[in-house]
Amino acid sequence: SSEGEMNNGSMGNGHMDHDDVVSLIDSTGENELNIPPILKSDSNKGTEYTIRAQKGETEIFDGVQTKTYGYNASFLGPMLQFEKGDTVKINLINELNENTTFHWHGLEVPGNDDGGPHNVLEPGEESTIEFEVTQEAATLWFHPHPEGKTSEQVYNGLAGLIYIEDQNSKNLELPSEYGENDIPLVFQDKVFNDEKQLNYKAIANEDGTVGDTSLINGTLNPKLTVDKEKVRLRLLNGSNARNYTFKLNTGDSFVQVATDGGFLNEPVSMEEITLTPSERAEIIIDFSKVDGNENIALMNEDGATLLPFEITDQTGKNMDIPDEMNDFSVTEEEKNLPVTKEIELFGMMDHVTINGKKFDPERIDFTQEQGVTEVWEIYNKPDMMGGMIHPFHIHGAQFKILSRNGEAPAENERGWKDSFSVAPDETVKIAIQFKNKGIYMFHCHILEHEDNGMMGQVKVE
Ligand code: C2O
Ligand code: CU
Ligand code: CU
To answer: Where are the domains of the chain?
Structure first.
């Protein structure tokens, strides 16, 4: 897209109107998608790991080095594979020239291990955390969370994936060969300047930075080569602010099998799926009957081709997707609980607030008792311009969406969630319980809104 378009779109310093977000440039499909390596444990067995936040240079464009950040790499991070029941020890090292934290998005860990803005590591500092993995199989992720600097650090490349496996996920007959038919897809949009650098400060938008260039797992112009079989895609919207709506260019449907925090009870057939920043979904696309000459691609609703598929003539296993995958339920008791916490999201640009206040690290906004389920009600109050979607996230817990504007949530939201969209004038009710104690953040996951103070703290005791 042209410079003119960029300036009129949402990459200037104006208020981001989500109906008018700059379109993504089509992937030409010339590069095979990068698959993040699985992080090996320090002794090559066992569950002790080392993660370094570091600076580097990455060849995103042929022959050009772009300055980037990464975990154990110059750009982005590895995939951490945990098993339910594991006691995991992670050595954290900050090799950046600035403060950072290591936050485990979606992981149910004690507040001290959560990597929120209180768990700062200064340049050169190290620390070790240890926790037990107590939750079910899911696709989670990790990223930094230093106060006021999250957006820039994530934008520069600090983000990685966490897979949790359990007995159920191992028993289910689902595509599960990592990088073969079980593919992680981290979607991010960037703005590159003429020197092909990410100059965050020059292009940052207070209302959420969006770019015209789509990267998947850090790959520019990616394509994915698949066999004629069912392929599982683990989608993460890892962008600072852009909402993605994924669909196939053929209009064919696919099935969703997992939400942020675990499997759905049964596969849900979908023609498109919207993920706001930080949300995940696992979907399965059936390539088994595709004729190799057919052009199939994953697209965004704005018309951009994100990921063209190249289909080999190899046929893979022809598994049937199980129709029973989990036993998630909302109990009558949970449905009847009174609302005990009310949250009002409001504002735009740097005037964003929660319940009329900006984040204050010294202020505890709410308390909640460990192991006790409460109902929170989140309302997005429109402003004079109509308002915008805020993706709302709470640390340290997977929770249940009870209703949206009084109605039951869509079938594909009837599973564990840690983030969800809240449209202007929408009210979302959730039932949430914290397994551990500590101080946890809740915030808008448009990272510039978070950095601008659209964040609060709940103390679990
Ligand atoms: Cu993705 Cu406060 O986190
Ligand atoms: Cu989080
Ligand atoms: Cu927001």
So the answer is: 36-171, 182-315, 332-460
Our answer on whether the CB atom of 236 is closer than 6 Å to any ligand 1 atom is: no
What is the Cα–Cα distance from 255 to 334, expressed in whole angstroms? 28
The rounded Cα 325 to chain-centroid distance in angstroms is 22
- Cα–ligand 2 centroid distance for 398 (angstroms): 10
Task: Tell me the pLDDT tens digit for each residue of 33-86.
Answer: 999 999 999 987 789 999 999 999 999 999 999 999 999 999 999 999 999 999
> DSSP secondary structure string, 208-226?
----SEEEETTEESEEEEE
Decide if 36-171 and 332-460 have a common fold.
yes
Protein residue with its CA nearest to atom 3 in ligand 1 = 105
Query: How confident is the prediction for the chain on average, in pLDDT?
Result: 95
Q: Which ligand is nearest to the CA of 117?
A: 1
Integer Cα distance of 77 and 90 in angstroms: 14
pLDDT at 181 over 60: yes
Ligand 1 pocket member 280 (CB < 6 A): no
Which token pair is 226?
Answer: 């698949």
Q: How far apart are CA 148 and CA 430, in angstroms?
A: 27
Neighbours of ion ligand 2 (CB under 5 A): 105, 395
CATH 2.70.98.10 is held by the domain 332-460: no
Q: Is the pLDDT of residue 403 over 90?
A: yes
Q: Is the CB of 395 under 6 A from ligand 1?
A: yes
pLDDT tens track for 309-365 = 999 999 988 899 999 999 999 999 999 999 999 999 999 999 999 999 999 999 999
Q: Compute, in angstroms, the gap from residue 62 CA to the centroid of ligand 1.
A: 32
CA of 105 to the centre of ligand 1 (A): 5
Answer yes or no: CATH 2.60.40.420 is held by domain 182-315: yes
CA-to-CA distance for 103 and 192, rounded, in angstroms?
Answer: 27
Phi, psi of 83 (to 5 degrees): -115, 140
Going from the Cα of 309 to the center of ligand 2, the distance in angstroms, rounded, reads 31
Nearest ligand 1 atom to the CA of 143 is 1
Output the CATH code of domain 36-171: 2.60.40.420
Residues making up the chain, counted from first to last: 461
Residue 17: pLDDT band (50, 70, 90) is low
pLDDT of residue 15: 56
Please, which residues have CB within 8 angstroms of residue 108's CB and are 6 or more apart in sequence? Answer: 134, 135, 396, 397, 398, 434, 435, 436
Closest-lying ligand to the alpha carbon of 444?
A: 3
